Amino acid sequence: MKDMLQSPTRRQLLSMIGKTAGATAMYQAMTTLGFASESSFKETMDLKGAPPGASIVILGAGLGGLTAAYELRKAGYDVKVLEYQNRGGGRSWTLNSGDKYTELGGEEVTCDFEEGNYFNGGPWRLPSHHYAIFHYCKQFGVEMQPFIQTNDRAYLHRTDHFNGVPQRLGDVKNDIQGHVAELLSKSVNVGGLDRSVNTEDKEKLLEGLKGWGVLDKDYRYRASNETSKHRGFSVFPGGGLMPDATPSKPLPISEILDSGMWADIYGNHMTYGHQPTMFQPVGGMGKIGDAFTRECRDMIEFNAKVTKIHQDDSGVTVDYVDSNSPDGATKTIRADWCVCNIPLTVLTQMDINVSKPMKQAMAAVPYETSYKVGLEFNRRFWEEDEWIFGGLTYTDMPIAQIAYPSQNMFKDGTGVLLGAYGYGPTSYKFNTLTPQERINVALAYGKYIHPQYPKEFRAGTSVVWHRIPWTLGCYGIWNESTRRQHYDTLCSIDNRIVLAGEHCSHIPAWQEGAILSGMDAAKRLHKKAKMLV
């Protein structure tokens, strides 16, 4: 089981990209792996003066489509939204107790959690600088709570290092800092930085390194009460006649470097996109999609499977079928304009008459694959046994990450962990497993970090995005070359059709990108519609 799904880690993948294609390519790869950039949202939209009687059909009730629908109706357009599913929100999706869906291949995935527990199959956290999504959440009354990204009590784990024993993230972080401070102080003391710092600065630097790295009087990073005040004690200070405090022993720098744990700390907790404070909606990420749907409900027709999109010089005709109708009769809607929020993985398989450059742009954007497994346990042992409240554990095993809930802390009874979450080659292997096999694999690997798994497990569910019929992937992948060649074309208005969604943004994989794309599409379409009057 240990090597059942083993594939390169993100760190190894980025390292290989950097060595073979250079720093620019590595930066693009980091973007696709979820390191968010700041939103460009500046102010509320206020579109006005739609041409009398002008109509717009919006295909897909994801956040990009519903943002456009909401803003364009305020401007005075007659708006109709066609949605393939029986709900809005797209990938802003939470699986709650009793939910079920059918993935490609016909397997039914169920969520048998206790009432009140949930699992975010898609997005699960919101950077504080994603201003547009918070603007709409505040406007629509979506309650937020902090999401804990970094928790020093969570673990870093390497199968072949430290005898496979998980190490506390804070211990590793403080030990790296201490060892680096010691090495740098040695360089300063032997004159290794004489060309960079003068005598006065050298003294200040040494004093700063001593405090920053918790070094002793000889500028060494060693086990002591002082270092243990930072990394924790083996035996913590007590009261009365309890045992005396015992300092903990730092991990050797050679073992830390050999394990590669450095990359987990500085690659996942110090990027701008994951800086505190992050947030999540109370009750699950799907609350955002629910709020947008509520605001736009009278415009939406659910269970509408689009089969053909045809435009001419005066408008757009869309053929669709009611996926719940036994006769499968084709329906048709005609509008002056179309905002298409359908994922490119699906759209490129449709009958749509757009320009050749637009078709090339649509075909140029592959979608990342991703897997998630949610595990419900009879008790919150990570809190009760290990004092872990929120945060993420990272491992080189195929489950990649374990995330601890930031809600319902100290609650008695059941709780849900994100028991596996990753991308890339391992994700394709997860795609080949049945829903039950995915749960079994997450449990089999996770027990090496949390031995309580077998005894405490209650129920599980999962999402593998390339087997989700309405998206066929997780998010659009761009690189410098494809953006240069196709991005402007993909986002342009092609006669009467404009695309929207996270794939039409510089923040792929994030809901903010979808919302900003919907806002921009609505603004440009409105401008063009007014010009043609």
Q: What would you say this structure looks like, in words?
A:
The protein has 533 residues and is an alpha/beta fold. 35% of the residues lie in helices and 21% in strands. The chain contains 18 helices and 27 strands.
Write a concise keyword list for the protein shown above:
533 residues, alpha/beta
Head-to-tail CA distance between termini: 66 Å
Q: Biggest β-sheet, characterized?
A: 5 strands, parallel
The coarse overall form would be: globular
Rg (CA only): 26 Å
Structural class determined from secondary elements: alpha/beta
Q: What's the helical proportion of residues? A: 25-40%
Unreliable spans are 7-36
Number of strands: 27
Q: Averaging pLDDT over every residue, what do you get?
A: 92
User: Total number of helical segments?
Assistant: 18
Strand arrangement in the largest pleated sheet: 14-2-1-18-27
Strand content: 15-25%
Short note summarizing the structure:
The protein is α/β, with parallel strands linked by helices and 533 residues long.
Layout: helices, strands, pairs:
Elements lengths: L9 H12 L1 H10 L22 E5 L3 H13 L2 E5 L11 E3 L3 E3 L5 E3 L7 E3 L5 E2 L3 H10 L3 E4 L7 E3 L9 E2 H21 L9 H15 L11 H7 L1 E3 L10 E2 L5 H7 L1 H8 L9 E4 L4 H11 L3 E2 L2 E8 L4 E7 L7 E6 L1 E4 L3 H4 L3 E2 L3 H8 L3 E2 L1 E8 L3 H4 L7 E4 L5 E3 L11 E9 L1 H7 L3 H12 L6 H4 E8 L10 E2 L3 H12 L5 E3 L11 H21 L2
Parallel strand pairs: 1-2, 1-18, 2-14, 9-22, 15-19, 18-27
Antiparallel strand pairs: 3-6, 4-5, 7-13, 8-13, 9-10, 11-12, 15-16, 16-17, 20-26, 21-24, 21-25, 22-23
Helix pairs in contact: 1-2, 3-10, 3-18, 5-6, 12-17
